[in-house]
Each structure stands twice: as structure tokens, then as C-alpha cells.
């Protein structure tokens, strides 16, 4: 099945692969793509023939995060609804009873990094990187990143990373605990399918309970998302955000 911006297929029995498919925009999220992804994930979680999910991006890129030009033009009274819809997607990934594997080629930036780190396992090509550019455009990390970064690398290191964000190479991500495996780019797809297949061989009931047990050891997800919502809504409405986006888009346009 394909809906243009999202491709859903079964590369192997029991494995569903979802591919973000906006390659001309480095697979940046639009409201339509985000809702397609959420709807398809919900359907897959209720499909007994699906035992594991693989999330990836088209043509050598994972996801560039939000579409900044569209975000900057968003009416301020629609900001909260936009953020809540992103939270619904992140909750679905984190709380899903089935394991989800993220396979990252190119870059996972902003909300794209949030999507990846909400998955159960993160695989990166050795040339891939994570990018958290929020502060440069006057925003705070969203898509649950404050929660998932702290879970994976500890509060102190996550705190410093969010205060001074720099691109994180695949090797650094592995050392920090943000990636679970780094492989040559040519091997990324097959390695991710094999890992998803290994997950699919496990007991679905036990797997669902293991995910619940792990989640129970973490800080309450909703509390973090509530603070994120308040912070990001205020930042979205600020002059700093508009100026930051304008500067970012200007630099992007000038690049050869």
C-alpha cells in the first residue's frame, strides 16, 4: 500500500515497513504525512499478522523534522493542536505493544530524531547523523526528545546535549547510547529487516509486557509531554522563532 508521502509494505512475513516518502524535502514531516503515519501505525498495531514494524525514509534520508516554511506560516491559534498531534504519534511509538525499529540513513533532524528515538531499536548507517537544531531556530526539543534522550543517555548528558546541540555522528550516537547498532549504509536495510525479524520471532504477549515493564521504570511520559507542549507553544509564538526560521531558510536557499 502507498499513499504518496507514506509507503507501507511487507518486505518479509510478519514485518511491516513504513517509509517516509518526501525525498525532495528530505522526508520532512507535514501534517498530512504525520497523520498518515499515525493512522497506519494504529492499524498495524491491531493487525495480528504484523509482529514488528520498521520505520525508515526514502532515498538515503530518514527525516528532516518539521517542514519549517509551513511551521512558520502556521496561525498561532493552531500551534497547540499541531503539538498535540505530534505527541499522539510519539505516544503510539513508545507505548505500542509491538517492537518498532528505526533505520537511519542520511540525517534524522529535529522531529525526525524524535521519531527515531521513540522506537525500540535505532540502527544507523555509518555515514548517518542525528541533528537537534531547535535552539538555533528559537525552539525547544519536541517529539518527546527530552524524554527519550534522558532514557537513553541519562539526564545530565541529555541536558548538556540539548543546551549545546551539535550534529551527532553515528559513531558518537552509538557511544552515547542513542544508536543500538551502526552498519555500512549498504547493509542498513537488510540488517534492520533481520533485527525486526528477530523481534517478530518472540512471543507477542511477552514482548508487549516487556515494553510495559520497561516503560514503568521511566519517568511519566505524559508529564514530560505536558511541559514540552507549554514550552514549545510559547516558543512557536515568539519573534525569536520567526527570525530563526527566516535565517535558517535563507542559508538553506543560498547553499549550492
Which strand-content bin applies to the residues?
15-25%
Low-confidence stretches: none
Termini separation: 36 Å
Main sheet properties: 6 strands, mixed
- Tally the beta strands: 9
DSSP helical segment count = 11
Shape: globular
Strand order across the largest sheet: 1-2-3-4-6-9
Estimate percent helicity. 40-55%
- The helix/strand order is EEHEHHEEHEEHHEHEHHHH
Query: What is the average of the pLDDT values?
Result: 92
Radius of gyration: 17 Å
Structural class by sheet pairing and helices: alpha/beta
Question: How is this structure best described in words?
Answer:
With 256 residues, the protein is an alpha/beta fold. 50% of the residues lie in helices and 16% in strands. The protein has helices spanning 31-45, 68-72, 79-95, 111-117, 145-153, 155-163, 170-176, 188-200, 204-216, 221-236, 239-254, and strands at residues 6-12, 15-20, 52-57, 100-104, 107-109, 121-125, 129-131, 168-169, 181-183. The strands form 2 sheets. Strands 1-2-3-4-6-9 form a 6-stranded mixed sheet, with helices on both faces. Helix 3 runs antiparallel to helix 10 and helix 4 (111-117) packs across helix 5 (145-153). The chain is globular and about 50 Å long.
Amino acid at each position: 500500500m502507498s499513499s504518496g508521502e507514506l509507503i507501507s509494505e511487507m518486505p518479509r512475513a510478519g514485518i511491516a515497513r513504513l517509509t517516509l516518502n518526501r525525498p525532495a524535502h528530505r522526508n520532512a514531516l507535514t501534517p498530512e504525512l504525520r497523520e498518515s503515519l499515525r493512522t497506519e501505525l494504529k492499524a498495524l498495531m491491531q493487525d495480528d499478522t504484523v509482529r514488528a514494524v520498521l520505520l525508515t525514509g526514502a532515498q538515503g534520508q530518514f527525516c528532516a523534522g518539521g517542514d519549517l516554511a509551513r511551521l512558520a506560516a502556521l496561525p498561532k491559534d493552531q500551534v497547540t493542536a499541531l503539538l498535540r498531534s505530534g505527541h499522539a504519534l510519539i505516544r503510539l511509538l513508545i507505548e505500542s505493544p509491538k517492537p518498532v525499529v528505526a533505520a537511519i540513513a542520511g540525517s534524522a533532524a529535529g522531529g525526525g530524531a524524535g521519531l527515531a528515538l521513540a522506537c525500540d531499536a535505532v540502527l544507523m548507517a555509518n555515514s548517518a547523523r542525528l541533528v537537534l537544531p531547535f535552539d538555533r531556530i528559537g525552539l525547544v526539543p519536541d517529539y518527546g526528545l527530552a524524554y527519550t534522550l534522558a532514557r537513553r543517555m541519562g539526564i545530565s548528558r541529555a541536558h548538556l546535549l540539548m543546551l549545546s546541540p551539535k550534529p551527532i555522528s553515528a559513531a558518537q550516537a552509538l557511544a552515547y547510547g542513542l544508536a543500538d547498532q551502526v552498519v555500512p549504509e549498504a547493509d542498513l536495510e537488510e540488517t534492520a529487516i533481520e533485527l525486526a525479524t528477530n523481534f517478530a520471532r518472540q512471543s507477542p504477549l511477552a514482548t508487549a509486557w516487556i515494553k510495559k515493564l520497561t516503560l514503568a521504570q521511566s519517568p511519566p511520559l505524559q508529564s514530560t509531554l505536558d511541559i514540552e507542549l507549554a514550552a514549545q507553544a510559547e516558543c512557536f509564538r515568539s519573534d525569536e522563532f520567526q527570525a530563526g526560521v527566516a535565517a535558517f531558510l535563507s542559508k538553506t536557499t543560498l547553499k549550492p
